[in-house]
Design a protein that fits this description.
Shape: globular
Order of helices and strands: EEHEHHHHHHEEHHHHHHHHEHHEHHHH
Strand content: under 5%
Number of helices: 21
Largest sheet: 3 strands, mixed
Length: about 600
């Protein structure tokens, strides 16, 4: 019979055998030696915690994902269906002209759907702006949630704003408006601004909210049905939560994108914008039905100012005119030590309403933000999926398929390979003793993204080689103004999309996990927003490459992205390899205490 342990209520530092009641003597870890009555929280009671030896030798496994997390994932599915379902047709809506005699923009089987006719550069510029806007606004959403309203209430407001944006988007495509390209463009841009605001407020809060549904934070030991003693690792559980969170995202993206590309092709843009709006209505319904089931973290007031005051205090006396010396002093291992409240022998500053553990968490959060500084280069490569690869497909033989349907290979590959990675590949690596840590996954993501761009560059080279107009492939037409395309089958783009999908599994999903697990508990929305903001930086950087986003420079465009991603991947690993060795310690910091500094609202709606 397996031995189980529980914690003595009279002496929380003593672990007793379940059956004999006698104290168990083991070589306890440093963390376990700090057990106190605070650990009896109804979450970690009666769990067996691993010894130092067990931490090093036992295999680690994730825990079960709570059902409330799946309900939030369903909300995300509906939101992503509406987001990707509508945005997948943006390129054609902006770039291509309204077909002759059309009042809907539908191109039907042998025609090209279009509406505004503003060209590829305008299309790339507007879609890039939209992405930039969607990833700047999460900073506002994070501040509102962490300081005033809490994540759940902020999400409810975000859903209302985004719904208004979807309605405006429909107006830009209805017959009677779409024929006036300039007027439709103005309405379209207003819709982008309103939808982007709602999306940003939503994104920075739904990601931490889903992970907060899992309450355990400490390693504990169980015995499997096969009799193997394993460690249940909360960090791996959070990783699994985000794997399936991303799985639900891409189910929504896949169904939305496939359905809306055919709606655009055979009915018109008004339907491609209306159906996502209808699905989006599932969000407020699911939020209302589950309002009493979700685990919610209340706002803690203006904690951002406190964090910056802490950093400023820690940095005092470390500035220097010598940049090398200053960098070393600001990144020294003892940077945060003198800022801990326990170091004060006299009266502490009034703003210092926290304990030493919170300082450690802030230190960890800053390390995470330093990791995210490298992400814009990764997103530069990823962003080619949203516009240039769609335009590339339009210059190839699609055999009746809408040119933008090929982008669905990315979410399709993710839906297939996320469960394979979670259930087969990652467990196999752990059984083989290979530690495929978060930072190693991110590094692999850079290289996978680079490989995707190399594939796209090769395909583009052969498009130029086989197109009748060669280096003017995007504008090649015959005497009757019918598009002339390369005889290459559009499905050869598959390699780029599959490689991009693997890069997302390694880099994008792990980024969500890293933002949540490394952030202080009362700053999770903010750190998540910083991670999302890296996409906005990438969108801004993309504007510098817009001149490469048209013929005859597209091979250079993809080649530059491939080189940037691979070189950055190498530099990134050299920068974080020491941090990678601290992963387990950073994931198991003691729980902090911070006094609330300002009022907030977290009542259910």
């Amino acid at each position: 019979m397996d031995r189980h342990v529980f914690i003595s209520l009279s002496d929380p530092g003593t672990r007793l055998d379940w059956f004999t009641g006698h104290p168990i003597t083991t070589k306890a870890s440093a963390v376990d030696e700090k057990l106190s009555i605070e650990n009896l929280d109804g979450i970690h009671d009666a769990l067996e915690f691993p010894t130092e030896e067990e931490r090093e030798t036992l295999r680690r496994v994730p825990d079960t994902v709570p059902w409330s997390a799946y309900l939030i994932a369903l909300i995300e599915l509906a939101e992503r269906f509406s987001f990707y379902g509508s945005s997948v047709v943006f390129t054609n809506f902006i770039q291509q002209k309204l077909p002759p005699g059309s009042h809907t923009g539908a191109g039907f089987t042998h025609g090209q759907s279009g509406a505004l006719g503003k060209g590829q550069r305008a299309s790339t510029g507007l879609t890039t702006f939209y992405q930039f806007w969607c990833y700047v606004t999460p900073l506002l959403g994070a501040y509102i949630a962490d300081t005033y309203l809490g994540r759940f209430n902020t999400i409810c407001i975000a859903v209302a704003i985004a719904l208004l944006g979807h309605i405006i988007l429909i107006v830009s495509a209805v017959p009677g408006v779409i024929e006036n390209s300039d007027g439709a463009l103005v309405v379209f841009i207003i819709a982008l601004i309103v939808m982007g605001l709602g999306t940003g407020l939503f994104k920075s809060n739904v990601s931490p909210l889903i992970a907060e549904q899992y309450k355990r934070t400490r390693l504990f030991v169980i015995t499997t049905k096969k009799g193997e003693r394993v460690i249940v690792d909360p960090a791996m559980t959070i990783s699994r939560v985000y794997m399936y969170f991303y799985f639900f995202i891409n189910i929504g993206a896949l169904v939305g994108q496939v359905g809306m590309t055919f709606s655009e092709k055979y009915v018109g843009f008004w339907l491609a914008y209306t159906l996502p709006t209808i699905i989006f209505l599932l969000c407020p319904i699911a939020l209302f039905l589950g309002r009493n089931r979700y685990v919610r973290t209340p706002p803690t007031g203006s904690i951002l100012l406190t964090a910056f005051r802490l950093w400023r205090y820690a940095a005092a006396g470390r500035w220097s005119l010598n940049p090398v010396k200053m960098y070393r002093q600001l990144t020294a291992p003892d940077f945060w030590e003198n800022a801990k409240p326990s170091k004060f022998t006299s009266e502490k500053p009034k703003w210092m309403t926290f304990d030493d553990q919170w300082v450690d968490e802030v230190n960890r959060g800053f390390k995470a933000c330093a990791v995210f500084c490298w992400y814009p280069i990764y997103w530069l490569a990823y962003n080619q999926l949203n516009n240039n690869l769609t335009s590339q497909a339009a210059t190839m033989s699609t055999h009746g398929l809408p040119n933008d349907v090929l982008s669905n290979l990315d979410p399709l590959a993710l839906v297939i390979f996320i469960p394979i990675c979670d259930l087969i590949i990652y467990p196999a690596l752990r059984r083989g003793g290979l530690n495929f840590s978060a930072l190693r996954k991110i590094t692999a993501g850079f290289f996978a993204g680079s490989a995707a761009m190399i594939w796209a560059a090769v395909v583009q080279h052969y498009i130029y080689k086989t197109n009748p107009c060669h280096y003017s492939a995007a504008t090649c037409k015959d005497a009757d103004q019918n598009a002339l395309v390369s005889p290459l089958n559009v499905w050869i783009q598959t390699g780029s999309y599959v490689l991009i999908a693997f890069s997302e599994i390694f880099a994008s999903i792990t980024g969500l996990e890293y933002a949540f697990t490394k952030a202080p508990g009362n700053m999770r929305s903010l750190v998540m927003a910083v991670y999302l903001f890296t996409s906005a930086i990438a969108a801004a950087l993309s504007e510098a490459f817009v001149s490469l986003s048209s013929d005859p420079l597209l091979v250079w465009n993809y080649g530059v992205m491939a080189v940037l991603a691979s070189v950055t991947g190498v530099i990134f690993w050299l920068h974080v390899r020491k941090l990678d060795a601290q992963e387990d310690r950073l994931n198991n910091l003691a729980v902090n205490r911070v006094e609330r500094t300002r009022g907030g609202v977290d009542a259910g709606l």
